[in-house]
Design goal:
Length: 189
Amino acid sequence: MRATEFTRPIQTERLTLRMPILEDIDPIHAFQSREDVCTYLLYEPRDRATIEEKITEAATKSRLENSGDWIQPTIERRDDQQVIGLIYLNIDSAEHQSVEVGWILHPDYSGQGYATEAASAAVDFAFGTMGAHRVIAKLDPANDASVRLCRRLGMRKEAHYLEDIWVKGEWGDTGVYAMLDREWSATDR
């Protein structure tokens, strides 16, 4: 897998995936502070101060080389520059060339194909630019929308771990979906 610097935004037909800046705090707070958005996430709704800390940290993360390295670009609509979500890329294992992808989208923009478009661009970046052998998504198996998105991306279900994570005061399950580079190469992008 190639060491990669995320320095230029990724453009899709309708979206730009770019590094976050502090000016993104209001649109990010608009969805990360919502209970319904955080239902399937590993954290409770966030206040502005926490979001500011997270943006500041994410703004310093651009190099993907070692296990645990991550980036969290914003999902921005190209037509009005509105930030509508976040994409997450994490090197799950540099040795095994495995990259994790994740996404969060403001509910006002769901059902319009934005999550699929952004996640597809992130998967293309992981395979095409980073040279990953495998891309995975870890999610709450009860999150039907994310399960459907994984399937649209061409990922297959590989695991359902029962009560493997302590989150929000209770045991939760983890679903794992994945795709290999050869499967990605065979898709019609």
